[in-house]
Amino acid sequence: MNRYEYKQQQRKERLEARATSLQRQGESAVDRARRMSSVIPFGQPILVGHHSEKGDRNYRNRIHNTYGKGFALQAEAQRVAQRAAAVGSGGISSDDPDAIDKLREKLAKLEAEQVQMKAINAAHKHFLKNPAILETAEFTDTVKASIRSYTPAYSWEPHPFAPYQLTNLSANIRRVKARIDELATAPSREEATHERKGFEIVHNTEDNRIQIIFPGKPSAEVRDLLKANGFRWAPSASAWQRQLNNAGIYAATSCADAIEKLGVVQ
User: What is the pLDDT along the chain (266 residues), one digit of tens a residue?
Assistant: First the structure.
């Protein structure tokens, strides 16, 4: 597990722990609301005009609010659990130091899949002319059975793999190759800090982030400017940051010039 994978694992565990905590809090609130409800006799109405009316209404409102809080906590727990499950499922990140190797591995699988799909379509084409030819083909029995049993649903899908499937696969292969070339030819960056008037710009190569760090909380105008340029607040780094690439460096420089004119801290 490299550093990036370790950070992803830590994030997943934090989200899972938070989801568990929220679920327990929600269950506790619902149980508390049930216990509160149990002291009211079943079907007991509010006695309008009675001296107990105000207290009764307030008590029932507390029950209602406690139930609402519990259900809201459980719903939030479910959302956080879904976020935890999604960690690491978004593909290969450029932040991963092993990204190129993983992309090359993915490319090899896609190209092997493409070769297999084309071979099966070619075998099906020959099978239609001479069924006996399939007996000597280098396919598993399962694949041979699928070729024999294939019946086109549409005229534009004459073989087991439709043209659009091969087209989509080719596009995906080109996309992966382009990402490999992009990462392989990206200029190596060195850790650097640039001092500006009241703040600094940091090239954090370890985290693959360009960061803008302030001594205090920036003004609302500055925060809006940072967000508009793709920067997001990262509490763990105490910095506004985005991915360290040419676009990020350009955005940081543009922001820095504008920030110096706006002023920095509230």
Answer: 788 888 889 989 999 999 999 999 999 999 999 999 999 888 888 888 888 889 989 999 999 999 999 999 999 999 999 999 988 887 888 888 888 999 999 999 999 999 999 999 999 999 999 999 888 888 999 999 999 999 998 888 999 999 999 999 999 999 999 999 988 887 666 788 888 888 999 998 888 899 999 998 888 999 999 999 999 999 988 999 999 888 899 999 999 989 888 765 54
Secondary structure class of 223 (helix, strand, coil):
helix
Which segments of the chain does DSSP mark as H helices, in order?
3-38, 53-86, 99-129, 141-149, 163-185, 220-228, 246-262
Global confidence as pTM = 0.66
Q: Are 19 and 81 in contact (CB under 8 A)?
A: yes
B/e letters for 245-256, b = 16+ CB within 10 Å, e = fewer, are beebeebbeebb
What letter represents residue 260's amino acid?
E
Q: At 24, list the tokens.
A: 């327990």
